Amino acid sequence: MRRMFYLGVTAILALSLLSCSGDDRSSQFAQIFSDQPADGDIAFFPSSSLFQVTNGPATLFFGIDASDPGVPEYRAFLDFPLNGATGGEVVPAGAQIRSATIEVFVNEVSFASTVPTLIDLVSYPISGLRAFDFDSPPLTYPDGSFAFRTLEFFSSDLENYVLIDVTPLLAEAQRRGLPDFQLRFLLDFVPRAEGLVGIEDLPSATITAPLLTVEYE
After folding, report:
1. pTM of the prediction?
2. What is the rounded (10 degree) CA torsion for 101, 167, 83, 34?
3. 3-state secondary structure of 87
4. Could you point out which of 19, 21, 59, 168 has its C-alpha 20 to 30 Å from the C-alpha of 205?
């Protein structure tokens, strides 16, 4: 219900703003759930230099697990099909992105009250993550700079939804003609950075599943 109310209010506000501004361009909206089997996380164990790849878990982790003797670092991956391949709505090729957000439900925040975070625009096989994807270079903007954004997760986000603006990242994915919008979440290693965050990803519970909302023309 929270999502339906939020999305309904968003649509009404968008239409009102267009009407007031006299902008005659027609906005379209798409809502796309992440492809849970293509989502996943990767843990790296520095003591053994081993990677643990998990495809389609119920919770996606990123950050440092300080409770594990091996102190693994996790990185989480989300895949949003833009072409309707999983039966969802479509963002047409060539569409101009006006705004894009993802909404995630946080079911764990551990070891830090504030978790500095990077979100990279990446590309990986939907057939399954590989160890290589843990540290693969982010995709780049036309000027050669990496396509990413920074933000912070907080202990107060536990059991709550977090809305994240990803407009420039989706616009770049669209410019490249990518069939899937794929993101990697990782700890931003600023001085003394720590923390572990869990994102709920249950395909049977769409109320908390990661959701991409796009306004385009």
Report:
1. 0.89
2. -30
3. coil
4. 168
Helices (H), ranges, 71-125: none
Tens of pLDDT, residues 160-209: 999 999 999 999 999 999 999 999 999 998 877 899 999 999 988 999 99
Tokens of 159: 């059991």
* Locus of tokens 């003591």: 47
Q: Helix, strand or coil for residue 138? A: coil
**12-34 exposure pattern, b = at least 16 Cβ within 10 A, e = fewer:** eeeeeeeeeeeeeeeeebbebbb
Reported confidence tier of residue 44, pLDDT bands at 50, 70, 90: very high
Q: Which three-class secondary structure state does DSSP give residue 141?
A: coil
SS3 state of residue 62: strand
CA nearest neighbour of 121 among 137, 135, 138: 138
User: At residue 205, what are phi and psi to the nearest 5 degrees?
Assistant: -125, 80
Residues 122, 148: Cα–Cα separation, whole Å: 9
Token representation of residue 91: 């963002």
Domain that holds residue 153: 2-216
Question: How many structural domains are present in the chain?
Answer: 1
CA separation for the pair 93, 178 (Å, rounded) = 9
Rg (CA), the chain: 18
